[in-house]
Design a protein that fits this description.
Layout (H helix, E strand, L loop, with lengths): L1 H17 L6 H5 L3 H13 L7 H13 L4 H13 L3 H14 L1 H16 L2 H14 L14 H11 L3 H12 L10 H11 L3 H14 L4 H13 L3 H16 L17 H10 L2
Helix pairs in contact: 3-4, 4-5, 5-6, 6-7, 7-8, 7-9, 8-9, 9-10, 10-11, 11-12, 11-13, 12-13, 13-14, 14-15
């Protein structure tokens, strides 16, 4: 568990640094005074509360000085996304992607998945990014998912569950890849949904080894054992799911509902009517 938490922290560090403060000196060294000054305006902007009038004014100044400064479009877009103004967010982030596709395609793809539920668009962005770079395409903005896992989840929602399983298992076999905190949960649910109950149990048990903090894992384990008519294991895991859920060990997200999340009513209904 300690190893995987450490890897998770590395993922977060990687993501933060991918979208962190720009190095204005790059423009200075290139002799681009306008974009250098635009970068300085962006630095001023992030000193204010995100989405505040002061912050957005500085980003506007940055864009006015250097219309090709992708970072300013990206940062200006973020508050609109968080506030649910997807139209304005999309206009700004599209410009950032146009100017710097390798840097912002992954971000836009993830947001299309998480916020817009635009699964086809998310797949398109992630695959486009993969075609542009010769290095690992990286993780979601929150660090929870490798972008290939996010792509797999998109295929799941689009009804291509076997394709989703293939993508996840292919990612698992990639060099130097360590499964993230929810990878085996989603794989287990996919196996359950495609009638591979033993495969589901194997995956969900691996999820427990990596991240034993989710009621969802035990709930889906119970459902898999139910399909195999193993009532003792079914009852045990369902009780564990309720215990975990009531102790706050469950999937949460500050903005959207995570995939494969459950509610207490799901567990209680299963206890009442399941067997």
């Amino acid at each position: 568990m300690t190893k995987n938490i450490g890897l998770y922290i590395i993922f977060i560090f990687f993501v933060v640094n991918c979208v962190g403060q720009p190095n204005c000196n790059i423009y200075k060294w290139e002799g681009d005074t306008l974009c250098y000054n635009a970068c300085l305006e962006a630095i001023k902007a992030i000193e204010f509360e995100q989405g505040s009038k002061e912050s957005q004014i500085h980003f506007d100044k940055a864009i006015e000085l250097c219309p090709t400064f992708a970072y300013a479009y990206f940062e200006k877009a973020v508050p609109y996304l968080k506030r649910g103004n997807f139209v304005t967010w999309k206009k700004l982030i599209d410009k950032a992607v146009e100017l710097s596709p390798a840097e912002y395609l992954g971000y836009r793809g993830w947001c299309r998945y998480q916020f817009l539920r635009d699964y086809e668009g998310a797949i398109k962005d992630i695959e486009k990014l993969d075609s542009l770079v010769n290095y690992d395409i990286g993780y979601s903005i929150n660090g929870d998912y490798h972008l290939n896992i996010a792509k797999a989840l998109c295929y799941k929602v689009l009804g291509q569950k076997k394709r989703a399983i293939e993508i996840i298992e292919q990612q698992f076999s990639s060099d130097n890849y360590s499964p993230s905190l929810y990878d085996y949960l989603h794989l287990g649910v996919l196996k359950l949904e495609t009638d591979d109950y033993n495969g589901a149990i194997t995956a969900l048990k691996k999820e427990i080894e990596i991240n034993d903090y989710l009621a969802e894992t035990y709930y889906y384990l119970a459902l898999a054992y139910k399909k195999l008519s193993e009532k003792v294991e079914y009852d045990k895991n369902l009780l564990k799911a309720k215990e975990y859920y009531t102790n706050g060990k469950k999937r949460t997200d500050p903005y959207t509902e995570p995939m494969d999340k459950i509610y207490l009513t799901d567990i209680e209904d299963e206890m009442k009517n399941g067997w």
